[in-house]
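Re: the 301-residue chain
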Amino acid sequence: MADSPISLTVPVERAGWRLDQFLHNSLPTYSRARLQDWIRAERVLLDEIPAKPSHILHGGERIHLTPAPLAPLNATAEDIPLEILYEDDDVVAVNKPAGMVVHAGAGAHSGTLTNALVHRFGALSTVGGGLRPGIVHRIDRYTSGVLLVARNDTAHLSLAHQFASRTVEKTYIALVHGVLKADTGRIVKPITRDPIHRTRMTARLDTGRTALTDYKVLRRFDTFTLLEVHIGTGRTHQIRVHLASIGHVVAGDKLYGAPPGPADRFFLHAARINFESPSTGERITIEAPLPGELDQWLAAL
């Protein structure tokens, strides 16, 4: 059920604020992402006219907001195919395809990995809440590869501790623009939300959360380099942001300035993960093969 319509008048002292910024400040019950979705869906009228989230206010405008029905509080089961790489009583490892969102969020409430997991396995860990059953970590929507899922709360807490203490080893394969001269390298730069382009992160400021990325050259092409990448932290868009910050944007990553590639995605794949079994303490390594569209991308080079 949707909330009742809301009418606001922009105070003169809010002149210079973005529309989405003003709404989030005035209506803290709703997330900024949800408000931006409603603005784009023309559920927000500024003086009776639709506007963009980035619209700069002058003061005195009248805003009329018609909220959409809120998303369900729990992930619903959907019969979506899953490729299971590993399974035991504590952990499931899934090979997530590019294009699939891990869990529900603004603008995505069906077709997610969690919807598929609930259908396939029923009960999973509850630590992350009803919309994120079993989800201990995430990978970007257009990144493919191995992702761990906790089947119970004890396993979830164990895996979360391993991620927090950086004992989980995550290996990615990335194709980047340009030819890197050094065979190996390390990027240590804090990552924060880009203050201008809010859908992006940035490593060009001195503020943000510490992030560590190591890379090794696997193969050099005329204008591209294939890398094996290890991350010591798990920040939003970390690999994409760090590689772009040294002038080697991930191939196909239009958000960070790359031209479109031959596939409807960018070239970043979570190829391997190594962690400790929550029950036995044994180290477990799980690998996800490179998807066919990325194999074809390399073959074309």
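The CA atoms of residues 125 and 152 lie 4 Å apart.
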